[in-house]
Design a protein that fits this description.
The complex is a heterotrimer of chains A (292), B (237) and C (336). Chain A is mostly helical. Chain A has a domain of 200 residues. Chain A is built from 11 helices and no strands. The longest helix of chain A has 31 residues. Chain A is globular. Chain B is an alpha/beta fold. Chain B has a single domain, classed as Rossmann fold. Chain B contains 10 helices and 10 strands. Chain C is an all-alpha fold. A two-stranded antiparallel sheet of chain C has the order 1-2. The radius of gyration of chain C is 21 Å and the shape is globular. The chains are: A mainly alpha (292), B alpha/beta (237), C mainly alpha (336). At the A-C interface, helix 4, helix 9 and helix 11 of A face helix 5, helix 11 and helix 13 of C.
């Protein structure tokens, strides 16, 4: 039993990473109703920017918030410049542009900062939480940061005008225009916010997995899984989903005989799919009724 | 009667296909103008053209400004509220959020709160369902929500696209009596597109009849109602 | 005849004329492309013939994907898995059982059809983004699956399987590269012909009905479950055969060559060629083979970025792929 609990805790610790990523994914889904495959690479790129700022001697928290601000603007510009010309193109064409962005960010990062593995500092230190040996201080800090971002997002969407306008623009762009909302601005802002949250995710994740251009791919996958499991319409669900994915991945590795350790990722993914077969809108998602 | 919206030689296109062939009409300020016609005549297209939701050419003047090259959201900000075909409700948001969205471009002040109150007075059922998901409302309630949202804009002009569509007769009667109330109590002009000609002509002051993209007949509502061919084709007697 | 009647008849005549012109233009284009494909291997070097061969192979794989996504509307980000399955079937048949390469084609097709159909069954309940995620999981799982120690006896694990390149049969005066190319071309033409027949048949219309309006399709009596699973099966069959051909031509299969990068490449090829436009598969295949090389020519260090830029520019120019572009040109010509 004790081992089980330890594994669960350990899973929650890794799950914190996925929860953070999942939150950024859901954020962008709320703004544009598609999954951005380049999200991980953009987060990675932001983290490299932070690293560069730190190299220039800027103190941690200043670099942290400066990176968030830069990512906010960057995400907004990417949407306005790159996606504007294909506003009316079909979904698959958009997905291909995401893939192109993935390639561009990955390649640029490798070119500017090379592919060697770099350490990235944590503001929470490297010991365990209050010396308890249960969970790392950084892991715990990461979960706290994720929850804080979640709370801010909740307040933003529920209680601010801009948040409502953004939800409306994503839900029904035509009707949103009819009430005077500048839908393209809202989409751009949504991208900016997603990029900002991605930057936070990247800066939280890098101390654990180390900073290098290919660090985000598997995390992005797990993040997708967590977001979908929680329900793409629910930021809280995304966080829970991410944590669950971490736990499932860990337990699958230990408890599924023979193949468990080798197939951790596919097993986690397939378990999520199994959930989706029974509850397509995810654990906490809204079921949208489709009328013919 | 002065005209709040003036349209001359309006042409509209779906892709390369021309569906409106040079419409001329005026909407009198403070009154209800109705646009009648059969399915596919071009009534909805006219409303969409005014709001910039479809490719259009011609002259559209509103309060001294030309709308023909403006974007939909900017036209809305001028005070034109469009209640679209199919209601256009934000299904995943609550009823109250839908109404708040109507006032999105207004300053947040006390007038906004009192306007919300007034909408609930016109449509008490909406108050009951204020925190319900809008998509779960019945057709009639969604139509009321759509009109309520339009009112929250404090519009100078309201465009209504077939409010009676798909609704039971009793619900339609209730809806139109509320529209009559709004007409009497509020200073808002209306352009009403309707297939239900008799109800529309009761409410309206003036009427236009569209057939395949051109205006076939125009005049005071009373006149049109008594017109022989209109009676036999559209009113059924 | 009244003026409007005369107008109508002349419009009909003009449209009929345009239709005839369009069909003969398209037939001419198809014959032209085929002629070029037949002549090229005799004027190009061995390596270039190999590249052309890979282009055809990816075109076949994309054709399979097009049947599933373009015609039936089911997303797949995991077609690399079926390609891998076909490749390994071919490798195992030739290496373990010592059979000739010709046998690998129907074997790969059959095995992949079954795998595809079986995957299509649970996929029935998934739509859009969820199906994309499920197929993506499949793509990611494939290399790990192939490396499983359980299966090592057959797959040879991480080291992979080497295959010998077959010679041209009956002593034909063709190099092995050229022979394999024509072998692929013949199979490709056969599969393309099959695909066109499927699309033009009642089943094809049922598949498209399911894509456009599944609720209406069901109310017309179409067995959605059966058709969707079959679509997966047939699509996997095509891509599996492509995989088998790929194994023979590359002469090597190993788990890491079948990662999600392959699935992504197939999807990109599909969109660039034109979703729902079957001939676009050839354009897609060309893109997959040649554009990464072009990107690398530009700058070794920034080849990925260059690839991304080329891709974005292509999408700007042809948002609906080559197929969409051709359709727009055809439309414009119709108006004259």
């Amino acid at each position: 039993m004790e081992i089980f609990l330890q594994q669960v805790l350990s899973g929650i610790a890794t799950g914190g990473i996925y929860a953070c990523m999942a939150l950024a994914i859901v954020m962008i889904y709320q703004a544009i109703h598609t999954l951005n495959f380049a999200q991980g690479e953009m987060a990675m790129f932001s983290t490299f920017i932070a690293w560069e700022l730190l190299q220039w001697g800027i103190p941690y928290w200043a670099a942290f918030f400066l990176t968030i601000a830069l990512s906010l603007v960057g995400g907004f510009l990417v949407e306005r410049i790159i996606f504007k010309p294909i506003e009316n193109a079909p979904l698959l064409s958009h997905i291909v542009v995401f893939i192109a962005l993935f390639a561009i960010f990955n390649s640029l990062a490798g070119f500017i900062w090379d592919f060697s593995i770099k350490p990235f500092p944590s503001p929470f230190g490297t010991s365990t939480l209050f010396g308890s040996g249960l969970i790392g201080a950084h892991q715990a800090g990461m979960i706290v940061v994720t929850l804080a971002v979640l709370l801010l997002l909740f307040i933003f969407f529920r209680y601010t005008r801009v948040g409502l306008a953004m939800r409306a623009a994503a839900a029904n762009p035509e009707s949103a225009r009819l009430v005077g909302i500048r839908v393209s601005m809202m989409t751009g802002l949504g991208w900016g916010m997603a990029a900002a949250i991605g930057a936070i995710a990247g800066m939280m994740i890098a101390p654990i997995v180390f900073l290098e251009p290919n660090m985000m791919l598997t995390i992005l996958l797990y993040g997708f899984a967590g977001a979908v499991l929680g329900g793409l319409t629910s930021p809280g669900g995304a966080v829970v989903g991410g944590l669950l994915v971490g736990v499932v991945e860990n337990l699958a590795g230990i408890y599924i005989p023979v193949v468990g350790a080798e197939l951790k990722l596919p097993i986690a993914l397939f378990l999520i799919i199994a959930v989706l077969v029974f509850k397509p809108s995810g654990l906490f998602g809204q079921t949208v009724v489709q009328r013919v | 009667m002065s005209s709040i919206l003036s349209v001359r030689n309006l042409e509209a296109f779906y892709g390369a296909f021309k569906v409106l062939h040079g419409l001329d009409f005026d909407i009198e300020e403070g009154g209800v103008t109705t646009l009648l016609g059969a399915n596919g005549a071009g009534k909805t297209t006219t409303l969409r053209a005014i709001c910039g939701m479809t490719h259009r050419k011609g002259t559209i003047e509103f309060g001294g400004r030309s709308l023909v090259s403006m974007k939909t959201e900017d036209i809305a900000r001028l005070g034109i509220a469009h209640v679209p075909e199919g209601r256009g409700t934000f299904a995943t948001l609550t009823v109250e959020e839908n109404l708040q969205l109507g006032a999105m471009t207004r300053k947040r002040d006390a007038a906004l709160d009192s306007d919300l109150e007034e909408v609930y007075r016109y449509f008490p059922r909406l108050r009951e369902r204020a925190s319900q998901q809008a998509g779960t409302l019945s057709g009639g309630e969604q139509q009321m929500l759509a009109i309520g949202r339009a009112l929250m804009l404090r519009p100078k002009l309201m465009l209504l696209d077939e409010p009676s569509f798909g609704l039971a007769p009793l619900v339609v009667e209730e809806l139109f009596s509320i529209l009559a109330d709004i007409k009497t109590n509020m200073n808002v002009s209306m352009l009403l597109v309707e297939q239900n000609a008799s109800l529309a002509l009761e409410l309206a002051d003036s009427a236009y009849l569209i057939e395949t993209g051109t205006i076939a007949l125009s005049g005071a509502a009373e006149e049109i109602r008594n017109n022989e061919s209109v009676r036999s084709v559209y009113l059924g007697y | 005849m009244s003026l409007s009647e005369r107008e109508a008849t002349s419009l009909e005549a003009r449209e009929a004329g345009t239709a005839v012109r369009a069909t003969s233009a398209s037939a001419l284009a198809q014959v032209g492309v085929l002629a070029v494909l037949v002549v090229l291997p005799f004027v190009l070097s061995g390596f270039q013939v190999f590249q052309l061969n890979m282009m055809l192979i990816y075109a076949i794989a994309i054709l399979g994907l097009n049947l599933l996504t373009g015609i039936n509307g089911q997303f797949s980000l995991g077609h690399g898995a079926f390609y891998a399955a076909g490749a390994y079937v071919a490798a195992i048949i030739m290496d373990h059982f010592g059979l000739g390469y010709a046998w690998t084609i129907p074997a790969a097709g059959l095995v992949c059809f079954v795998i595809g159909f079986l995957f299509g069954l649970p996929a029935l309940r998934l739509e859009g983004i969820y199906l994309a995620l499920a197929t993506f999981a499949l793509a990611v799982a494939t290399p790990q699956f192939l490396k499983l120690s359980l299966l090592e006896e057959w797959t040879n694990g991480v080291q992979g399987i080497v295959i010998l390149k077959p010679d041209a049969p009956f002593g034909l005066p063709l190099t092995p590269d050229q022979w394999l190319y024509f072998f692929t071309l013949a199979i490709g033409l056969l599969l393309y012909w099959m695909a066109r027949n499927i699309v033009a048949s009642r089943s094809g219309r049922a598949l498209m009905a399911i894509r456009d309006n599944p609720i209406a399709a069901r109310s017309m009596g179409i067995n959605i479950a059966l058709y969707k699973a079959l679509a997966f099966g047939v699509s996997a069959l095509f891509t599996g055969i492509a995989g088998a051909l790929g194994a023979i031509v590359v002469q090597f299969v190993a788990p890491d060559s079948f990662g999600f990068v392959l699935s992504v490449a197939l999807l990109v090829g599909l969109v660039v060629g034109g979703v729902g436009w079957l001939p676009g598969a050839l354009v897609g295949g060309a893109f997959v083979v040649f554009v990464p090389n072009i990107a690398e020519e530009f700058s070794k260090g920034l080849s990925g970025a260059m690839y991304g830029v080329i891709l974005i520019l292509l999408i700007y120019l042809m948002p609906t792929g080559a197929g969409g572009l051709i359709r727009t040109i055809a439309d414009r010509m119709k108006r004259h």
